[in-house]
Structures are given as C-alpha cells and as structure tokens.
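User: hey, got a sec? need Deacylase folded
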Amino acid sequence: MDPEPFRYDSEVPPGEVRHLRYEISETYLGDPVEIPVTVINGEQGGPSVFMTAALHGDELNGVKVMQEVASRYNPADIHGTIVCIHVANVPGYLAQQRYIPIYDLDLNRSFPGRDGANTAERMANQIYRRFVEPCDLGIDFHTSTRNRTTMYHVRADMSRPEVARLARSFGANLILSGEAEASSLRTVATNDGIPTITVEMGRAHRFQPAMVDRALEGVESVLAEYGVLPDEAVSWPGWTRVIDSATDKTWLRADVGGLVEMQYGDVPLVHEGDTICTISDHFKTREKRVSAPFTGLVAGVLQNPVAAPGHPLCHLVSVDDATLREIEREIEAGEFTERPWS
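Assistant: Yep! Here you go:
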C-alpha cells in the first residue's frame, strides 16, 4: 500500500509528525478553544488509527497515554497513520470536570454533532469530521467517574466481528460487550465503518502509572494486529472474560445510609457469599453486610466512603470456572495485577 497524506482541512504528508492545536469553538471572550492533536504519518502505507482522551474532562489517564504514544512512534517505523487527540473536551479539562461547564453538556453524547446545534454538538462535529472520519479504527480512553474507580477493561460490541478483532487485540483481560449510547463516539464511529472500542481504566483526576503502562502495551498490540507495526507481536493475555449478558454482571447498591468500608482484600476477586463491604451508622450500633451474589471480579467500586440508599457500591462481573482457576493460579504465583484502586 502506498503512503498517502492524512487530510483534515490541511494535510500531513507521509514521513511527517505534526503537533497542532485545532480550533473547535470559542470562549466567551471570543478566544479560540483548541484541541491538541498529534498526527504521525508513516513512511509506509497502512491503516489510520485514531485515539482520543478526555472526552470527559476530568478523566486523565488517557491524556498521559496520548502524550506517550505521540512521543513514542517515528514515521520511519510505522505503516499507516496514528492520530492522537490528546484532550477532546478542552473546556471540561480546564475546569477539571466531566462535562462542558455551565450547561453540563456531555461531549460523549453529542456525536457525530452538527453545525447550528448546541456547543457540545458543534465541538463533536469538528472533532469527528476532521480527525475521526478519515480513520479506519479507533480507541477511546476513559476512566470511571469521580468518587469511583474501575478495573482496567474494554467495552465493545462483540457481536460485530470487526469490533471483536479490535477488542481482543488490545489484550485486556476483561471485555464488557454491548452497544454504547447511540450518540457516543464509539457507536457513531463503529456504525460509520470505523470499528472503535472504549478503554476504561482507573479513576478520574490522576495519573495511574501501572494502568498507563498497560494501556501503552494495548496500543502497541493493536498496532501490531493491524500491521501498523508489522515487526511487533500481538499481546494475548493469560485469560480473557467477555461479559455479554446482563445476568453476568450487576451493580450492588446500598439499601441503607451510612459509612462504607470495603472488606474484600487485596485483589478484586470475591466468591459467592463473601462480604464485599459493610455499611454502618455513626454510632456503630447498626451494620449492614453486603455480600457477593456470585463469584466474580469487582470491576468497579465506590471510593467515597459514605452512601445513601440507592448509591452504587460496586460493579460485580461473574467469572466461569476456567477463568476462576486461571485467576487463582495467577494470584498464587503473584502474577495477578488487577488493582483498580491503585
């Protein structure tokens, strides 16, 4: 395949790295709102891969991943193009909050966007038309929302073979299968023939180096699978659990208000009947025990230690017998690395 320029409303010729700030909106003062973007266009032809971070402005692990990806790869080494959108939601990022400020607009519920619409849809339209639509596949990096953390995992519509290939090649142990919201970047891009996955990793408002390192390994594995890095190997984990049924996952919620203390130990594996957490009143005269309804992994967990009735406590996903044996072997050998709260 012959190399081609990457075109947005300018172009990046083969063999060039371009760092740019692209205007997608304006502030109240009429100053430009610019997203930082890196385009690495290889000397050899191949697929174009987009990667996005901070569609929710306080989700920072992906921002660090983008910084490292943008500095790691050289046009001489890649076959195709890597497009890194370092911070998609600049207004939210500057305010260090999830949504676009003032009107609390969710940029990841605004794709593909359109001219003449609200602020979020106009921004989404610029991002999508200029930097997503020209690509062949994509990875969208997220963390959990504030006051929670999440286990490192992929979200993808595994019923679509082209998406399943991408999800598996990323090398995460856990894949939650299903469609995303209709106006999310993942759904819109996939429906437009650009297979896209979401990577969820850790918590907001911080860098978590162990998760960033794993994500960089996942990126390299994807680039190897699609021939962007033809000399590298695809990384396959020791075990993979695909959750594609609502009966295989559940959010456990508080039935009483009080102080929450997690009880499940150093690794997020619990067996049926194990105590996951307790909720006690301030006088320690009442304690509610919350137990695991099935054996599984604590994929997401509350970090705010107070709860009211209905508040989510943890997201539990089941494991089958073969996966359980492999996880227990890894724990025994000291190889199990999942620490969503680190």
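Quick note: The chain has a mean pLDDT of 95. Let me know if you need anything else on Deacylase.
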